[in-house]
Queue: 2 jobs
Job 1
Amino acid sequence: MRSLLATLAFAVLLAACAPLPTRDLRASPGEIVEVTAHPTPLPSTTGFAPANETAALRTDTVDRIWKTIDDFYYDPGFNGVDVVALQKQSLADATADSVKSDAQFYRALKREVRALHDSHTLILTPREAEDSRARRATQIGLVFTVSEGRVVVTGVVAGFPADVAGVRPGMIVEAVDDRKVDAAFFDHARIAQPEPVGSEPSAVSGDDAERSLRLRAVRALLVSTDGDPRSHRLTLLRADDTTLQVDITARGGDVPTRESLTTLPSGIDVLRLSRFDSSVRDQLARDIDASRQRSRGLILDLRGNPGGEQRLFQWLVGRFVPRRTELGETRERAGSNPVMAPMYAEPASHPYLKPIALLIDRSTASAAELTAHALVEQRDAIAVGEATCGCVVAIRYDYVLPDGGALHVAQVGFRTAKGRRMEADPLMPAIAVTPTLAERRTDGDVVLQAAERALLAH
C-alpha cells in the first residue's frame, strides 16, 4: 500500500509539470555548418547558466525530466526500477548546497537517469546535444577494448589525430599523460566509480562489469571536463614490444560511416558496415548485388557498429529474404498501456540467398543488433564472435532542457518475430571467438577466419 501511495503521489506531482519541448535529433545542413564552426561551450565548472542558477529553476528542470520519462518511457514498469526514489534523489542532488556549477548539476542529472539501466535513456549537456545532432564527435579517433587486463587498440578512425600520429590496432595503451594504465590505476577506478545512488544491481556482472569499468576509467582520462579538448600524451606498446609516444589533441568532426566490400581468396565476400546511415544505402545495394552474383557466401561484419536508423535495418534485411518477412514488433506507450506494431522487411527484386555469417561483439548495438537477430531468426545466419551489447531500444526526439541540454528517452522497445525482447538480452554467437591479447596484436583476424571456415563447411 505504501508503494502504491508513493507512486500515486509521484504521478500527482508530475502532472503539474510543463512538458519539455522537442526538437529533431538531426540538425539541418545549415545548422551542422554553424555548430561545427561555433561549438557550444562545455558546462561551466565555476557557476550556473541563467536557466540553472536557482534551486527553484533546477527543481523545475528535474521535475520536467521525470515527467517526460514517466509519460513516454516504453516500459510502464521502468525495468523494475523505483522511479519515485530516483526522482526524489535527483531533486535532492540537484538542489544540494554542494552543487555550485552546471557541471555538478549535470553530473547529478546523469547519475540518476543512468540508474534506469537503459542503454538509450540519458542526459546530454548542451555541447553533447549539439554534437549528437550534428553527428560530430570530439575525439582522438581511437577504439579500444580490454583483453587479459590490458587496454588494447582495436580500431583507429581514418583521418583523426590517432591515425595521423601513427597509432595502429593491436597497440597496448601503457599510459595516458602521467597516469600508468596498470592494476593500481584500475583498483583506484573501482573505488571511485560506485553504482549510481538509487539503482538496483546492474544486469552486467562478472568479467563484463570489470571490462566496462576499465574502459570507462580510460575514457575518463581522455575526456576534458573543464574546457575545450586538450592534448594528451599516449604511451603505447607496439606488437614488437617497442614503445611509441605520441601527443594527440582531440578534434571535432563528423563521425564517418564506413562501408566496404572485399573478397577473400576462398571466394567468400566480407561486407563491413560501421553505422546504419542512409547515406551508404545506394553503395550497400550495389555491393550486395555484386556479391550475390560472384560470391560463395557473405560475411557481414557488424563489430563495433553502434546502430543508427531503424529504416535502414529493415531495408538491409530485405536484401537477404525471399519474401515479405515479419521481423518482430515495436512497443510504445499510450498512457499506461503498451501499443504494438509489426515490423516487416520488403524483399529486393534479386535478394542475396546464399549462406551468411555475422561478426558481432559487445559493441554491436541498436539497429546493428536488430539486424543480427533478424538474420539469425529469418535466414539461419551464423553469428560468430562475442555476445552483442543487449542495447535495443529507440529514441524519437531530443527533449530540450531549459539551458539547451537534452533528455533522450527510450520511447520504442522491440521484440523479435520469435518474441525475444533483446534489450538487456544480448545475442550469443553460435561460434564464440574472443581473440586473445596475442591474437589482437597480430595482423590476423581470428573471428573472421572462424566465420570463413563456418561458411565453407556450410
Note: DSSP finds 14 helices and 22 strands in the chain.
Job 2
Amino acid sequence: MPSNTGIAKQIMIVWRDAIPAFEPALHEAGEMTAGSDTSALEPMLTSANLKRLLDTMGQAVFAVDRNGGLFVWNFAAEKLFGQPRSSVLHRDIRQVLTPGDFLHTLLQSLDHGVEFSGVEVKALCRGKPVTLLVDIRVLRNQNHQPIGRLCVLTDLTEMRDQERRLRHYERLGVTSKIIAGFAHEVRNPIAAIRGFVQLLLEGRATQDPSTYLNLILEEVDRVNDLIRGFISLSRNDGAGMTAVDPDGLVEDVVALMQGYTFLNGIDLQTDLQATGTAIQGDPDQLKQVLVNLIKNAIDATPPGGTVVIATRRDDRTLYIEVRDNGHGIKPAVMPKIFDLYFTTHGGTGLGLPISRSIVHQHGGNLTVESRDGIGTTVRLTLPLPAPEDVPTPGRRPDSDSAPGPN
C-alpha cells in the first residue's frame, strides 16, 4: 500500500490537476492563501495534516489501491456510509460498500482505468437510498503508473428531494389554475342557462320559448366543448396510435372544413409535399389539432383572404404549416396564446393549448410566427420513425369521425 507521504503527494497532484473542490477546504484549514503556490504545500501534508485537511471537507473522500483496498476514509465518508474509519481501513471496498450503481461505477474505474467526473448515481447508505455526485480520479506513482483511485462524493439527496417537492408544488399550482379557469368558464354558460329556464318557468319570457331553448342548447354545447377540451388536456394513453398518412389527413380535414371556409369567404388551399410519408400517431387527435389550427386561421382572416395548409419533410421530421394572411397577432398578445382559456375571438380558449398538448404527446412541437396586420404561420413538427418501424398507413374503423371546431 502507498505510504502516507505518497498518499499526500498523490492527493495533492490530483487536486491541483483535476479536483478544485479541495481548494475551499485548504483555505478553511488555514493551509493556503489566495495566490499560494500549491506545490509548496506538499511538505506540509504529513499524515496528521492530511487527515485534518480531508476531515474539514463536506464531501465524502476515500481512496483505494488498485486492488480495491481502502487506505483513506474521511469524516464525511464516515457520516455518509455510517462506518467509522477504524472499521473500514485496509478492507476491500467490495466488503464495505453495498452493491449498487456507485460500487459498479468504482469497479469500472478500477477494472478499465477510466475516470469519472460529475456522474450522478444511486447508492444505499445507512440503509437509505441516496443520490451521489461522483468524481473518481486515478492515483499514479512517480512513474505515472496507476496505484489506486481517489473518490470524492457529494450527497445530492436533499437537493433532489427539494427539487421534486418544488416540481410537485408547481404541478399543484398549474392544476389549481386549470381547475379555477375551467370552473370560471363553465359558470358563465350555466348562469345563462339558469336565467333562461327561470324566465320560462316564471312566464316572463318576452320572446317565443323556442328562442330561449335554442340559446340553452348553444350554452349546453359550449359546456360540452369545455368538458371535452378539459379531458383532452389530460389524455396521454397513446391508445389510438397507428400509421397515419399526413397528406391524406390534411385532405380529410380540408374536406371537413369546406363549409366553414365557404361561409366565412376564405380561400382554403393546400400545398402537400409529403407524399408516401407515414407517421405514428392518433389520427383523431391529429385531426383535432388541424381543425383547431385551421379554424383559428379562418377566424383571424377577413373575407377574401387565404389560408394555406402545407406539408413537407426531411429525413427525420414532418412539417405541417397552417398559413394565413389575416390580422396577425399583436406582440403584446403573443406570450398569452398558449394560456388556457385565453381567447381574442370569443372561443373557449382551449384550441391552442390542447393542440400543443397533443403534439407534445406525439413527440413533436408546435410553434407560432406572426406579424401584426400581415398574417400568421403555425408550424407543427413531428418526428419520422425509421421506415421499418411504420406499417402501411391505414385507417382505424372510426377514423372518419372527426372532432368539430373548438
Note: Residues 197 and 283 are 40 Å apart (CA to CA).
